[in-house]
Amino acid sequence: MGNLLAEGIKADHIRAALIRQRAKGVHPSVLPSLVNDVMNTPTRSTVPSRAWTNPADAAAAYGGQL
Q1: What is the pLDDT of residue 47?
Q2: What are phi and psi of 15, to 5 degrees?
Q3: Distance between CA atoms of residues 33 and 22, nearest Å
Q4: Does the first or last residue of the chain, that is N or C, have fewer Cβ atoms within 10 Å of its Cβ?
Q5: What is the DSSP letter of 43?
Q6: CA-CA distances (angstroms) from residue 34 to 2, 16, 59, 62?
Q7: By CB neighbour count within 10 A (0-12 exposed, 13-18 middle, 19+ buried), where does 18 fall?
Q8: Phi-psi domain of 15 (left: phi exceeds 0; alpha: psi -120 through 50; beta: other)
Q9: What's the pLDDT score for residue 1?
Q10: What span, in angstroms and rounded, lies between the C-alpha atoms of 35 and 20?
């Protein structure tokens, strides 16, 4: 864990990985992989708030260039 902190990884990421490690019951050597998973998990803010829909007036939306 000290190596991860020395590499500049945030303590919050390490804490979240430790929680996952405890929940999964895996060997401590898996911790760096779990930290990587935590750091690369998309957050809700990257998910679109609504699905894409066709515009009601396609000619106005695309300038008549379909």
Answers
A1: 58
A2: -60, -45
A3: 14
A4: C
A5: P
A6: 15, 9, 49, 45
A7: middle
A8: alpha
A9: 77
A10: 9
Tokens 């979240």 found at: 16
Where are any strands of DSSP class E within the chain? none
Structure tokens at 50: 């609504």
Q: Distance (Å, rounded) from C-alpha 63 to C-alpha 66? A: 8
Predicted confidence at residue 11, as pLDDT, reads 93
pLDDT at 60: 74
Radius of gyration of the chain (CA): 21
Report, as ranges of residue numbers, the positions in the chain whose pLDDT lies below 50.
Answer: none
